Each structure stands twice: as C-alpha cells, then as structure tokens.
Amino acid sequence: MTIWAGIDIGNATTEIVLCGGPAGREVLASARTPTRGGKGSLRAVQGAAQLARRQAEAHGLVIDRAAFAPTPPVRLALESVQLQTQSTGRLVIATRSAATTAGDAVGVGAPVPVQRLDEVAADRPVVACATREWGYLEVARRVNAALDAGRQVVAVLTENDEAVLISNRLGARLPVVDDVEIAEVLATSRVAVEVRQGMSALQRLTDPFWLVDAFGLGDDEHDDARVVADQLYDSACAVVCLDEAAPAREDPADAGPEPGAPGPAHVVRLADIAAQANSRRGSVAVDALVMATMGDEEGPPADAEALSAALGVPVAEVESEAAAARVGALTTPGVTPDAVVVDVGGGTVDVVAEVARTVLPGAGQLLTAATAAALEISNSAAEYAKRAEAVTAITAQLVEDEHGRRHFLDQPIDGRYTGWLLTSAPSGLLPFTSRLSGAEWRSWRLAAKRLVIGHNVMTGLQQSGSGAEAVLLVGGGASDDELVRAVSEQLGHTFSVGRGNVNGQLGHRYAVAYGLVTLAAGS
C-alpha cells in the first residue's frame, strides 16, 4: 500500500494529510502547524516535511510519496486611514455625553462664568459655567441668587462631576451637565444645553431646523446643522456652541484615498459597517477606512524538488493549488459538483468555480484591522474579539452572554472591568471594550463580517461568471462559526452556503491537502 502525504503550505498555517488504501485516498492521519519562514520559503518546506515525518512516525507509517503545489505567497498590504471629519462650520459639539446629568429640559443662552451672573442683564438668557474650583454648594448658591434676582439662567455647566449635587440644590429644574471643558465653552458666543432623563432621547438638538433657529444660522449653514443633528442621535445629553471664530465650512471630503499599491484592493469604511449595524452614534469610530491591497506574487517559491530533498521521497507536483482546493472541498457530503468553493484565509478570499478562479484581498486580517480601528483597541485584542460571541461582566464573577443567559465564573475577573465586554483568549477572558452592549457588539461584528468577507465572496462569484447557487466555505477563516451566516446574508436567500467537511471527516481546513493527494494518486 502506497502512503501518500498531501502537503499544503499556506500563508498562516501548514496542513498535511497522510492517505493510503487501494486508491490512496483513505485518510490515515492529519495535522497542522503555523507556517515557518513564510509561504514559498525553503524554511516553510522543511517545516512541513518535519510535520509529515512526525505524524507518520506517530501512526507507525512510512511515507512513500508526497503531493505538493508550489505556490508563492500573495503580497498583501493592510492600511488604516483616518478620514477628514465632516465640517460643522460655526457649530461646535462641546460634549455629547457626561458622567452625570440632571434636569429634563433644554436651554439656550450666552455662556457666563458663575461668579459673574450678577452682572448680566435681567432679560438676557444665560448658561452658568463653573470651572473646577467652584464646588457644588457655591455653584448652586450663586445660581439660586441669580434666579431670585430675576435673571434668566437657563442651564448650568460644570467641570466637576457634580451635576446631581448641584441640581438637588437649585430652586428651578434646569438642565445641568458636568465634565464640560468650561474654557472652550466660554470662548463661544451662544450655547444650547439639552438633557433628557429616563427612556427619552434628545428632541431639540437632533432637529436641524431647531438648531438653525436657535443659533440664527444663515442659509449657507443649514448643512452644518444637519451634520450636528445627525451626530447627536442616541445621546441623552449634549452641549452645542456657536463659535464665531470657527473657520469657514470646507468642501466635503473625498470618498477616500485610492489604494497606494497596484493590484486589486478591498476598501471598507467604518461608517458603512456602523450604518448597517445601526450602531449608536459615538459607540464606535466611523471616521476611518481600512483597506487591503494585493500586489504581484513573489517568487519563485521553493519547488517539489526542495520538498523531495527535505522529505526523502518522490514528490508529485500539482500545477494548481486552487484546483486541489476544489477537488478536496467537493468531497464534503451533500455538496453538488457545481458548488463554488471559497477558501477563506488570513489575507485573501479565493473563489474557485468550475472554470474560473478569483483571488481577492481582504479576509481575516482586514476584519481584525476594522475591529481594532472601530473599537480603538490593539490588533491583538481585536484578533480575539472578532472571532465569536462575547459576554458582558455583570459583576466580578457573573457574566451574561449574547443570548441573555447568565453564568458564574470559576475565577472572578478584576472588578475594574465590571460592565465590559469580554472575549475568550488563551490566557482566559479578555476585556476589550466598555462602549457597547452585548447586543450592539453582536450587530456590529456580524455587519463587519458581511462587508469584509461576504462582500469578497459576492465579488468573486460575479467575476467567476458561475451560475451556481451553492457556496462551500473552506480554509482557516471558515473556523469562524458566524461566517456561514454572514456570507449567506450578504449573498441572499437564493444561495445555499455551508462549511466544508473534507472526505466527511477532516473538517474545513484540509481541502487543499486532501485534494493534492486525490489529484496525484489518481493521475
């Protein structure tokens, strides 16, 4: 019986299968390891040979022949680009959130230091502004004195975290907001303050027509009011100022920079992900884009002779790695022969139809970059966060998953991370953000997978010209349990999308390795 080794050296991992039997296709062993030295390198070939020998020895086998498709790596560049924020002209959002707020109202007036309230005219609406040295007792006393004197104090702003303490001591129910940079507010000419309590959202500051009237804006400033109103949706408090010294409105920013390198590119705008996920304004970053650009293939790669020398057996060279992936993937039970095979890797999505193959940049690595940019976290944290569902820390030892189920932890987390989202990492639960609820994170994560991976699958299908409506996902990226759903939703309900199970037993990772043996043993 001839023992075959199918060896697939990928950009991130190397997979091998050992096969035998009458036709040489009976799976005897399989294994994978991180690729050393980079795909196409001599070091990677030597590492693959070592893995194959170890597996053969562990199973009491002797490798007679190997199958290999020498393929150079695809050079991929990832880039995150900060976009120019939308201009709001003379309107400035001083804050859209605060540690605490009080009141349930809106007030518009000129900003005045709290110590000078007794100097303003009685018929002039003013917003009392207290810098950090003014404590809540003195602020409340001075505002009450001004109100008793008939002055129109319509709102209170303070730098200290004391909004409720001030509000509880006022003689009128005014909107009060803390954690505000008072020096910046005092440099403006007019201020609008709105606070809503309970289940209410902002009503006035999210109305562009109200903003135009309240600030006396000109006809050419209506777009500024629209942009401000849009940015304040989902807020429970906000402070908007009129800055007479602000620069004139600039033309809208371009759609985005062109990729800096030749070749295909996949550009994903964070604003598009947030819009598709209906994310709360301010909960995720939206003023950036991430892109993956694919350049020319490097080469030539280490060939079959190099593998033969490392392994000590004859190596059959298979011309097309894509053809091997398709042959191996289509051994999945229940799959029709016309199905399109999609190999999802770290850098590229490889769409293999019956007569065409399309390689597109933008896969797992691009999804990581988008997650890191949107949540403003490290790439290492984003790599784990993107993969699967998260839990919310209710207490140091109680968490709630995305289905609303609560679980007690065997080991408590640091109490500082109560309220944070946690994801699974090799070291345990990893806190990665406190800006989103579990439901919001789920919605954003799935939208990102649709626009990053699902978009590329759709593009590959269109370019292949295949009329098939069956899509089979294989490769390391198919480990993501949510990927089938994300691709299916992006393609539409007429497509059947599933995950490979090579030869009914190997799962989704070994399509190329098993396909190599199938092609070589059958030739």
Automatic annotation (TrEMBL):
Domain Diol dehydratase reactivase ATPase-like span(s) in chain numbering: 284-518
Record-given protein name: Diol dehydratase reactivation protein
A Pfam family matched in the record: DDR
SUPFAM superfamilies: Actin-like ATPase domain, Swiveling domain of dehydratase reactivase alpha subunit
Sequence ranges assigned to domain DD-reactivating factor swiveling in this UniProt record: 98-240
InterPro entries tied to this protein: ATPase_NBD (IPR043129), DDR_dom (IPR030994), DDR_swiveling (IPR040916), DDRA_swiveling_dom_sf (IPR028975)
